[in-house]
Write a structure and sequence with these properties.
By secondary structure, the protein is mainly beta. The chain has 3 domains: about 110 residues, RNA-binding S4 domain (Structural Genomics Hypothetical 15.5 Kd Protein In mrcA-pckA Intergenic Region, Chain A), CATH 3.10.290.10; about 50 residues, OB fold (Dihydrolipoamide Acetyltransferase, E2P), CATH 2.40.50; about 50 residues, SH3 type barrels, CATH 2.30.30.30. It contains 2 helices and 19 strands. Strand 13 and strand 14 form a beta hairpin. It is globular, with a radius of gyration of 19 Å.
Length: about 250
C-alpha cells in the first residue's frame, strides 16, 4: 500500500483563524497551494477576491477574474484560485489600478494594506539560509521560497547574512537595497502572540541546542517585549521602508 499524501481539501473549522470566512456556513474552504508560504501564514487568492475584497461572489467568478489576467502577485499574473499569498507579497488588481501588500496586523493576523504605485514595484524578503553551490557561488534562500545566487568574489559578490532583509524589484528580482539584522534597526513581528507589533531591536540573544534565538524589541510607547528571531522581520533603520498601516 502506497504512502498517503496530504489532503487535497480543507475544512473551514480548520482554516487559519484570521481568514475572513464564516466557519459554519459551509463545510469546505479553499486549500492554499503548497509553495512559498507556510499554510498557517498565507491566504489563497479565492479568499482574497471573494471574502476580503468582495470582488466576486462565487469561486466561478473568481476563476473568471483570474483567467482574464486581472490579478498580479509580485508583478506576475496568477490564474490559480488556490495560489497562496503571504507576508510581504504585493497583490495588484489591474482593472481597479490599486495595489496591496500582505502584512501582519496586531490582533488581526494577515491583512491587505493598500500601498502607492511606487511601492508596488518592490518587496522585502528575509534571508533564511545561506549556502555555497558546487560551482562556488553563494546561494541565499529567502522567506517566500525565492533563491538568489551571486558570485562568491568579484564586483557582483554580496555579503548578506541570515535574518537580513533584502529589497527586491518585482518581478525582475534585482536587489535594490539591504537592511541588516542588528540593534537599533526597526523590526516587524510576523508571527506569534506579538504579531503585527513593531519597534527597535534593543537586544539579540543567541540560541542554544534547546532554546531558540530571541530578540528584545522596544515599541514607540517605550514598552519592551521578547519574541523569537524567527518571528522578526527587519523593515528599516530610522523609519520603515514600506507602508505598514492602512
Amino acid at each position: 500500500m502506497g504512502q498517503k499524501g496530504g489532503l487535497a481539501h480543507l475544512r473551514r473549522l480548520s482554516a487559519p483563524w484570521f481568514w475572513p470566512i464564516h466557519r459554519k456556513e459551509y463545510t469546505w474552504a479553499p486549500k492554499p497551494r503548497p509553495g512559498a508560504h507556510r499554510s498557517g501564514l498565507c491566504v489563497p487568492l479565492e479568499i482574497v477576491l471573494r471574502d476580503d475584497q468582495k470582488l466576486a461572489k462565487t469561486r466561478r467568478e473568481v476563476g473568471a477574474i483570474l483567467a482574464a489576467g486581472k490579478v498580479k502577485v509580485d508583478g506576475r499574473v496568477r490564474g490559480d484560485e488556490n495560489h497562496a499569498v503571504g507576508i510581504m507579497d504585493v497583490v495588484e488588481f489591474t482593472d481597479a489600478n490599486v495595489s496591496y501588500r500582505v502584512l501582519p496586523a496586531e490582533g488581526k493576523g494577515l491583512t491587505l494594506v493598500r500601498i502607492p504605485k511606487d511601492e508596488a514595484k518592490f518587496k522585502l524578503c528575509k534571508v533564511l539560509r545561506k549556502s555555497t553551490t558546487a560551482k562556488g557561488q553563494v546561494q541565499y534562500g529567502l522567506h517566500d521560497g525565492r533563491t538568489l545566487t551571486v558570485p562568491a568574489t568579484g564586483p557582483d559578490a554580496a555579503s548578506y547574512s541570515t535574518n537580513d532583509t533584502l529589497r527586491l524589484s518585482v518581478p525582475t528580482q534585482k536587489v535594490l537595497g539591504q537592511v541588516k539584522f542588528e540593534k537599533s534597526n526597526l523590526a516587524l513581528v510576523v508571527a506569534g502572540r506579538n504579531i503585527g507589533r513593531t519597534g527597535k531591536i534593543v537586544e539579540i540573544q543567541n540560541g542554544t541546542a534547546t532554546r531558540p534565538a530571541t530578540v528584545t524589541i522596544e515599541d514607540s510607547s517605550g514598552s519592551k517585549f521578547d519574541t523569537m528571531v524567527a518571528y522578526t522581520f527587519v523593515v528599516g533603520t530610522d523609519k520603515p521602508s514600506i507602508k505598514l498601516e492602512a
